[in-house]
Amino acid sequence: MTASAAEGVLRGSLRDAVAALRQRDVTAVELVSAAIERHSALDARLNAYKSFDATAAIKGARAADDTLDQAAGDADLTAPPLCGIPVSIKDIYGVDGFPTYAGSSRKLPADPWSSDAWLVTRMREAGAVVVGKTHTVEFAYGGVGINPHWGTPWNPWDPDVSRIPGGSSCGAGVSLWERSAMIALGSDTGGSIRIPAAFTGVVGHKTTKGRWPTDGVVQLSSTFDTVGALTRSVEDSIWFFGSVDNRAPHDPAVLLETLEASSLDGLSVGIPECTIWEACQTDVRDVLERALEEIEGGGAQLTRLVATILDDAVDLYMSAGIGKAEIYAFLAERLPGALDLLHPTVGGRLADPLLVDGPGYRDAVSRQRHLAALADTAFDDCDVIVLPTNLITPPPVASLADDLAAYGEVNYVTPRPTCAVNLLELCAVNVPVGLDRSGMPVGLQIVGRSGEDEALLGVALAVERVLGTPEKRLGIPPMVR
Hints:
Shape: globular
Largest sheet: 11 strands, mixed
Distance between the termini: 22 Å
Radius of gyration: 21 Å
Helix content: 40-55%
Strand content: 5-15%
Number of strands: 11
């Protein structure tokens, strides 16, 4: 296959890429080589990765081809569901063969953060090929996406001005548009998958708390941390989920076929009257409301409802200091000296933390658990809830880099529409729905009940069938066309 043909497969869906690989229309080496070429051509500008290993990626691709060749020659064998697919991994995951910096200025100890994290192991078992580790906000503590130590990834939707890509998984969405990866692993503690997904125009699935172990991932908050991925479509997100989920292992093709039967007909979509919607920038809200009209036209029933629990959850997440206490304790105990090396955008926000063995922290966690136990009440009158994922146009990096006050304001705004989902231990998917007046992506957040990730993905897929995939609806970012 020619390089251009391999790049065509790279641009397509996971399902189609897997079919092409299994039919041997394209080899894993050809596909991964195309991903490497995209990285070589674009990363000097986009800066998605902290580390990229083309040699190891080709080696992994050759091993995938051996597996694919064996399966092609034996009717009793089936290649793993992601065999030969290039993936990027956020640099807070331990990955065999890669150092971990977690966005900080120094390398973390090899033990345990140079061994595969749980989700990386699942990806490798599914046959995926790791190409590199993407940039993150320092210790994942922030929703803006700036990294003063290693440079901030360039949001590809504005070729002239470097705008924030969203954090903390700031390189993940950029790697998908670079097309050096077809799946990008991230983590979500207050929105760190959904925020960059919204700001860069891709899909991001925040899994239910506890659905997947966070073993081998550098901790931010033991209370709120979740792991998952960003993908270029909801369909791809379902294929990924079905390939790695550990509760009831699926053939992703079967899961996708099952969820393709999902429909918006009669689905009750709750639009909560809350400060999250009220705080939404006017042109961003206009894009969201037009998308909701299309969703209603596709058969959904839009229901306005009162959901004060969402505002209560935002207030508690922002004020209680649970995550702050937990990351401070983690750094102090596990990485001596790290606190003294933090950039002010992170270190300045860690002053005066609650003590994890103190009454203030215990009270805050008790209040969080109480609210989480009531989370189902938000769905009394609806099947899913919809919220903005981003409230604002991503601002220029230069306006925040040297202004701690401005940075703090944006860092408050970015997780505001997403953090309630973490505090209430729910699941959510960002679906790109349009571009704002500045030509930057706008994301709709679809929120589901705790533990109902498959049902949520089915709803998101039905929405995508009505609105179109991100690439069809938004187009392609100018920097990667």
